Amino acid sequence: METQKKAREHNLRRIVDDIGAAFGMGAIGGSVVHFIKGTQSSPNGRRFVGGAQAVSMNAPRIGGSFAVFGGLFSAFDCTMVYIRKKEDPWNSIVAGAATGGFLSMRQGLAAASRSALMGGLLLALIKGVH
Measuring CA to CA, how many Å separate 44 from each of 34, 50, 51, 106? Predict the structure, then answer.
């Protein structure tokens, strides 16, 4: 039985789906990390409550940060596919660089340039450019 690789659509629905998935990953990962940190910093007898309180205070923030990153990355990736009219690893590499730079713009040009370089390099390592 032959299976065809279905290309992901590059539209608003994909961006919204990626934002939701990134929020979920950030919220779940943030919940685990902050529950452990909350239990460790709470006194005996109140560890579970301290962990739960740390989760409720921090997990939505971490999820939101992941959602912003995921949404920007997806938007830049879809933009690159639209501009270049082809799907290849370079779209993701440029999208990673653009996302890193965009998220660091408030710290100045030097910081944004470094973050863009690191974002591009990280995605190049992940995608394995030949």
Answer: 17, 10, 12, 42
Q: What is the pTM of this model?
A: 0.84
Confidence check: pLDDT of 46 > 90:
yes
CA distance linking residue 12 with residue 78, whole number of Å: 9
Q: Distance (Å, rounded) from C-alpha 78 to C-alpha 100?
A: 16
Residues 33, 105, 109: CA angle, nearest 5 degrees: 125
Helices (H), the chain: 12-40, 47-84, 89-103, 109-127
* Axis-axis angle for helices 47-84, 12-40 (nearest 10): 160
* CA nearest to 117, candidates 97, 88, 94: 97
50/28 Cα distance (integer angstroms): 17
